[in-house]
Amino acid sequence: AVVSTQSTGAAPAAAAAAPATAAEPEPEPVVEEKTSFDVKLLGINPSMKIKLIKAVKEALPELNLVAAKKLVEGAPCTVKEKVPKADAEALKAKLSKFGGDVSLE
Questions:
Q1: Closest C-alpha to 80, from 66, 53, 60, 65
Q2: Which end of the chain is more exposed for a tag (fewer CB within 10 A), N or C?
Q3: Are 63 and 73 a contacting pair, CB within 8 Å?
Q4: Distance between CA atoms of residues 98 and 47, nearest Å
Q5: 71-104 pLDDT, tens per residue?
Q6: 11 by DSSP, 3-state: which?
Protein backbone atom coordinates (compact mmCIF):
# COMPACT_ATOMS: atom_id res chain seq x y z
CA ALA A 1 0.00 0.00 0.00
CA VAL A 2 2.86 2.36 0.77
CA VAL A 3 4.49 1.71 -2.62
CA SER A 4 1.26 2.50 -4.53
CA THR A 5 0.73 5.72 -2.51
CA GLN A 6 4.22 6.95 -3.39
CA SER A 7 3.81 6.13 -7.07
CA THR A 8 0.38 7.85 -7.29
CA GLY A 9 1.78 10.83 -5.37
CA ALA A 10 4.69 11.28 -7.81
CA ALA A 11 2.79 10.54 -11.03
CA PRO A 12 0.23 13.39 -10.85
CA ALA A 13 3.00 15.89 -10.03
CA ALA A 14 5.02 14.77 -13.06
CA ALA A 15 1.92 14.73 -15.26
CA ALA A 16 0.91 18.20 -14.12
CA ALA A 17 4.39 19.61 -14.76
CA ALA A 18 4.72 18.18 -18.27
CA PRO A 19 1.61 19.79 -19.85
CA ALA A 20 2.41 23.18 -18.30
CA THR A 21 5.89 23.12 -19.77
CA ALA A 22 4.64 22.04 -23.20
CA ALA A 23 1.71 24.48 -23.28
CA GLU A 24 3.66 27.54 -22.10
CA PRO A 25 7.07 27.97 -23.69
CA GLU A 26 9.33 30.28 -21.72
CA PRO A 27 8.71 33.87 -22.75
CA GLU A 28 11.66 35.56 -24.42
CA PRO A 29 13.10 38.38 -22.35
CA VAL A 30 11.78 41.72 -23.56
CA VAL A 31 14.54 44.21 -24.26
CA GLU A 32 13.29 47.66 -23.39
CA GLU A 33 14.83 50.56 -25.22
CA LYS A 34 16.27 53.07 -22.79
CA THR A 35 14.49 56.38 -22.84
CA SER A 36 16.62 58.31 -20.35
CA PHE A 37 20.37 58.47 -20.07
CA ASP A 38 23.07 59.74 -17.75
CA VAL A 39 25.63 61.93 -19.51
CA LYS A 40 29.08 61.20 -18.08
CA LEU A 41 32.25 63.17 -18.63
CA LEU A 42 35.07 60.62 -18.63
CA GLY A 43 37.97 62.89 -19.43
CA ILE A 44 38.99 66.22 -20.92
CA ASN A 45 41.44 67.63 -23.43
CA PRO A 46 43.54 70.01 -21.28
CA SER A 47 44.13 72.41 -24.18
CA MET A 48 40.35 72.93 -24.56
CA LYS A 49 39.45 73.02 -20.86
CA ILE A 50 38.21 76.63 -20.81
CA LYS A 51 35.87 76.06 -23.79
CA LEU A 52 34.59 72.86 -22.17
CA ILE A 53 33.89 74.68 -18.89
CA LYS A 54 31.90 77.31 -20.81
CA ALA A 55 29.98 74.57 -22.65
CA VAL A 56 29.11 72.86 -19.36
CA LYS A 57 28.00 76.17 -17.83
CA GLU A 58 25.83 76.84 -20.88
CA ALA A 59 24.31 73.34 -20.76
CA LEU A 60 23.67 73.55 -17.01
CA PRO A 61 22.54 77.12 -16.31
CA GLU A 62 22.03 76.32 -12.62
CA LEU A 63 25.83 76.10 -12.24
CA ASN A 64 27.99 79.16 -11.81
CA LEU A 65 31.42 79.33 -13.45
CA VAL A 66 33.26 77.99 -10.38
CA ALA A 67 30.90 75.00 -10.08
CA ALA A 68 31.23 74.25 -13.82
CA LYS A 69 35.04 74.40 -13.50
CA LYS A 70 34.98 71.98 -10.53
CA LEU A 71 32.70 69.61 -12.43
CA VAL A 72 35.01 69.56 -15.47
CA GLU A 73 38.16 69.21 -13.38
CA GLY A 74 36.49 66.42 -11.37
CA ALA A 75 36.17 64.15 -14.43
CA PRO A 76 35.21 61.34 -14.55
CA CYS A 77 31.82 62.50 -13.30
CA THR A 78 28.14 62.61 -14.20
CA VAL A 79 27.22 65.86 -15.91
CA LYS A 80 23.45 65.31 -16.15
CA GLU A 81 21.17 62.44 -15.06
CA LYS A 82 17.97 60.98 -16.54
CA VAL A 83 18.09 63.01 -19.75
CA PRO A 84 15.89 62.11 -22.76
CA LYS A 85 17.84 60.43 -25.56
CA ALA A 86 17.76 63.39 -27.99
CA ASP A 87 18.92 65.85 -25.31
CA ALA A 88 21.61 63.45 -24.09
CA GLU A 89 22.99 62.99 -27.61
CA ALA A 90 22.97 66.76 -28.20
CA LEU A 91 24.83 67.37 -24.92
CA LYS A 92 27.31 64.61 -25.74
CA ALA A 93 27.99 66.15 -29.16
CA LYS A 94 28.45 69.61 -27.66
CA LEU A 95 30.84 68.48 -24.92
CA SER A 96 32.75 66.26 -27.34
CA LYS A 97 33.16 69.22 -29.71
CA PHE A 98 34.93 71.11 -26.91
CA GLY A 99 37.35 68.34 -25.95
CA GLY A 100 35.29 66.23 -23.57
CA ASP A 101 35.38 62.43 -23.58
CA VAL A 102 31.67 61.76 -23.01
CA SER A 103 29.58 58.59 -22.64
CA LEU A 104 25.86 57.92 -22.31
CA GLU A 105 24.71 55.33 -19.82
A1: 60
A2: N
A3: no
A4: 10
A5: 999 989 999 999 999 999 999 999 999 999 999 9
A6: helix
